[in-house]
Amino acid sequence: MAGWSSNPADSGREGARFASRRGQAVVEVTLLLPWLVFAFVAAFNFGIFAYALISTQNAARSAALYASQSLAVAQSGSIVTQVCPYVVGELGDAPGMAGVTTCTSAPVTATVTAKTPGAGHMNTVQVAVTYNTMQLIPLPGLMAGSLVITRTVEMPIRN
């Protein structure tokens, strides 16, 4: 067996060697822990912000799809109220959206504009959705604590 000795003097040296290794491990973990926490916070923030970007894009697309069903719907005075359930539905799991039911003030706003003629000389509807993320953990010089995300979708009116 390697490391086994019947000499009592050898066992004292072995114990000191293992103690110094444990001390070295403690020092290494102490020096690396701030970097590990920083990396975890950055990954967490990035994940939340990426989810918010995707959800905002989906919300704008869903609202534009609803508003593009006809020119009368797109020009309706209550179109923002009509598309709001679709916007809130897409952003429902995003941070800070619990209990939000309107799309006229923070954290989410939606605007709908009918364009006659719009892109490609067709009647189109343009929907812009703005979502303000909740305050997360800011990383100075790397990531802000919150983002304001705006996504715009323009879709041809079907009828």
Oligomer: single chain
Low-confidence stretches: none
Any idea what the shape is? Answer: rod-shaped
On the 0 to 100 scale, the average pLDDT is 87
Radius of gyration: 28 Å
The domain tally reads: 1
Query: Major β-sheet, in short?
Result: 4 strands, antiparallel
Order of helices and strands: HHHEEEE
How are strands sequenced across the largest beta sheet? 1-2-3-4
**CA-CA gap between termini:** 86 Å
Percent helix range: 40-55%
What does this structure look like?
By secondary structure, the protein is an alpha+beta fold. It has helices at residues 8-67, 71-74, 79-91; strands at residues 104-105, 108-115, 124-132, 148-156. The model has no long low-confidence stretch (mean pLDDT 87). It has one domain (10-156). Helix 1 (8-67) runs antiparallel to helix 3 (79-91).
Structure, briefly:
The protein is α+β, with helices and mostly antiparallel strands and 159 residues long. The chain has three helices and four strands; from the N terminus they run αααββββ. A four-stranded antiparallel sheet has the order 1-2-3-4.
SSE topology:
Layout: H1 8-67, H2 71-74, H3 79-91, E1 104-105, E2 108-115, E3 124-132, E4 148-156
Antiparallel strand pairs: 1-2, 2-3, 3-4
Task: Name its key features.
48% helix; 18% strand; 4-stranded antiparallel beta sheet; single chain; 159 residues; alpha+beta; rod-shaped; 4 strands; 3 helices
